[in-house]
Amino acid sequence: MNFLKIIMVVLIFNLRCAYASGDENGCPIRTDDDTSSSQPVSMISLIVNPEKYYGKMMYIKGLFDIDQRLLVIYLDRRSKLNIITKEAVLVRLGGIDLDLLKNLDGKFVYLNGIFEKTEFPKFAGQFKKVQILCLNFQAPKRVPPPELKK
Question: What's the whole-model pTM score?
Answer without folding.
Answer: 0.69
